[in-house]
Amino acid sequence: MHAPDSTQQPDRRGFFKRAFATVIGIVIGLVPIASGLTVFFDPLRRKSSTSGAIRVTTLEALPIDGVPRKFPVVASRVDAWNTFTEVPIGAVYLRRTGERTLQAFNVVCPHAGCFVDFLPERGSFRCPCHESTFTADGKIDNPDSPAQRGLDSLKVEIRGNKEVWVEFQNFQAGHAEKLPIA
Ligand code: FES
After folding, report:
1. Which atom of ligand 1 lies nearest, measured to the CA of 147?
2. pLDDT tens, 21-33?
C-alpha cells in the first residue's frame, strides 16, 4: 500500500492558479481591444449627411424670365470618419417666375440618374441617356419618356431679400414616387 503523494496537492493548486491568472489576463487584455474597435466602428452608425438649407446663389443671378439655370450645390459633408468642407454635393436648376417666386429642381434624371440638360431652343429639359423630356416646370413632357415621374422639385426660399437657399436632397431613381436617399 502506497502513502498519498504529498507533492501532488500543491502542484494541482499551482496549475489552477496559473490557469485562472491566464484567463483573467486574457479578459483584461480584451477590454481595450473591444473599446478600440467600438471607437473605430462607431462612425459607421452615423449617417453621411449634409443638413438643412444651403445657400446656392443670389436673386440677381436669376432674371425673371422663367428660364431654368443650373447652379452647383456646395456644402460641408460628413461621412463615417471625415468632415469635408465646401465640396460640391450636387446641382440644381433654379427658375424665377416672379419677383419672389422661384422653383428648384434636382438636376438628376428620375429615370436612372443621368444629369438632364435644359435646351433653351426647345424651352424644355432633355435627358441625354434615354431621351426623357420634361417641361420647364419639371413635369414629364413626352408621355413616352421612360422616366416615371417629373423632375424632383426641392424646397427653395429667399433669405435676407436676396439670397437663394435650397433644401438639397437626392431621390431614388426608377420609382414613380419621390423616395429620399438617406
Ligand atoms: S436616365 Fe434619364 S431618361 Fe434614363
Report:
1. 3
2. 777 676 666 666 6
pTM of the model: 0.73
How much distance in Å is there from the Cα of 84 to the middle of ligand 1?
A: 30
Beta carbons within 8 Å of 153's beta carbon, 6+ residues apart: 103, 104, 105, 138
Q: Ligand 1 pocket, 92 CB below 6 A?
A: no
Cα–Cα distance measured from residue 98 to residue 90, given in angstroms and rounded to the nearest whole number: 25
Going from the Cα of 123 to the center of ligand 1, the distance in angstroms, rounded, reads 18
Q: Cell numbers at residue 90, please?
A: 450636387
Ligand 1 site, residue 146, Cβ cutoff 6 A:
yes
Nearest to 68 by CA among 42, 35, 103: 103
Gap between the Cα atoms of 100 and 33, Å rounded: 58
Give me the pLDDT at residue 48, please.
44
